[in-house]
Amino acid sequence: MVKGLYIHIPYCSIKCHYCDFFSVVSQKDESYFDMLIEELKMYSFEYNIKTIYFGGGTPSIFNPRIYESFFKKLKNLINLDNVEEITMELNPRDYNYEDFKILKDIGINRLSFGIQSFNESSLKWLGREHDLKDAIMSIETAKKLFDNISIDIIWGIPNQSLKDFEKDINMALFFDLSHLSFYMLTFYQDTILYDKKQHEKSEEEISLFYELLEKKLTSYIHYEISNFAKKDFLAKHNLIYWNYEDYLGLGAGASSKVDKFIFSNPKSIEAYKEKVHKRAFNPTIISEEDDVKNKIMMGLRTMFGVDKNLIKIPKHLKEYFKEDKNRVSIKKQYWLISNYLIASVI
Predict the structure, then answer these.
(1) Residues of 178-214 as b/e, b for ≥16 C-beta within 10 angstroms?
(2) Cis amide leading into 57 (omega within 30)
(3) Three-class secondary structure assignment of 144-206
(4) CA 227 to CA 229: how far, in whole Å?
(5) Closest Cα partner for 335 from 232, 160, 184?
(6) pTM of the complete model
(7) Residue 341: other Cβ atoms inside 10 A
(8) Per residue in 218-255, pLDDT tens?
């Protein structure tokens, strides 16, 4: 039963230096939304859609009226009566008050801004188009209409001092938003930043930064390695991933997991369009072993953990985990080494 619908909008005005998501810097094409509808028509799954998420790329590169038209077509194909959360990722400065109003009228009830930093030099280093003024204005404008707003902040930038990072945290806290995501900078291959990997921060520095984050965000629930939320504002769509529930991804580069099947779309708009025209659908069956591994890998990223019957913790690692009734999770003070711990138990 598909609970989450992810829609990938790959168009961007520029390619940010750190980004490894599929995106294209080219003339945006409104006919892409017709392809999304045609792709949805290919499937005959059972739906009980609780969340919809527009990610990218840059969904806000399109006029919000495009989404108004898209939702009318979407509602003709699947029942959206049970939807609880509809999120859109946005670039600061793309939309004004009237645009936000259109989004709210459509039914979008959660915004996620790619702020990345409140520091001008960090924004330039990351290859962002907006500046501090744009970030502040976008958040303040959106707050007039939305009570569920999240922002992304990247930390661990080579020239970023602990004091710089504290300023970013303080700015994020100043807006009193419902949700904050703090992602440690990763130097992905095939990104502009990869050549600067030798400048990445030491483990000791990363530890100090993470400790500061934990210390400053006590008014939020730290429910996933990189995510913090106010009560009742945990990201419902992302929880579908972390709980290893079923989701359908539409669009070029999007991935899906439905029942025991996984499948993904080509990371090319032309190849994606060709796939949809041919109505090609080639799912892969998830083995029972991989299914369990995936549940563990996703669940241990969160404070909720996984069913204790799924894993056996080696004796020498027991101090890093905690048991609560029938659940096992990684103790929060060890989340920085969660990749190692997860790899050790799957």
Answers:
(1) bbbbbebbebeeebebeeeeeebbeeeebeebbebbe
(2) yes
(3) CCCCCEEEEEEECCCCCCHHHHHHHHHHHHHCCCCEEEEEECCCCCCCHHHHHHHHCCCHHHH
(4) 7
(5) 184
(6) 0.95
(7) 18
(8) 999 999 999 999 999 999 999 999 999 999 999 999 99
The two beta strands, 227-229 and 179-184, are antiparallel
In this structure, what token pair is assigned to residue 107?
């039914």
Integer distance in angstroms from the first to the last C-alpha of the chain? 26
Report whether 156 contacts 213 (CB < 8 A): no
Q: Are 265 and 273 in contact (CB under 8 A)?
A: no
Residue type, position 236, single letter: K
* Amino acid, res. 224: E
- The alpha-helical segments, DSSP class H, found in the chain are 32-41, 64-75, 97-106, 120-126, 132-143, 162-174, 203-216, 236-242, 269-278, 288-299, 338-345
The residue among 278, 277, 323 whose CA lies nearest residue 300 is 323
Question: How is residue 139 written in tokens?
Answer: 């958040």
Confidence class for position 196, pLDDT limits 50, 70, 90: confident
Radius of gyration of the chain (CA): 20
Cβ atoms within 10 A of the Cβ of 268, count?
A: 15
| Residue labelled with tokens 């000791």 | 204
Written as one string, the DSSP assignment of 218-257 is TTSEEEETTEEE-TT-S-HHHHHHHTT--EEEESTT-EEE
Task: Round to whole Å and give the CA distance between 110 and 99.
Answer: 14
pLDDT in tens, 271-298: 999 999 999 998 999 999 999 999 999 9
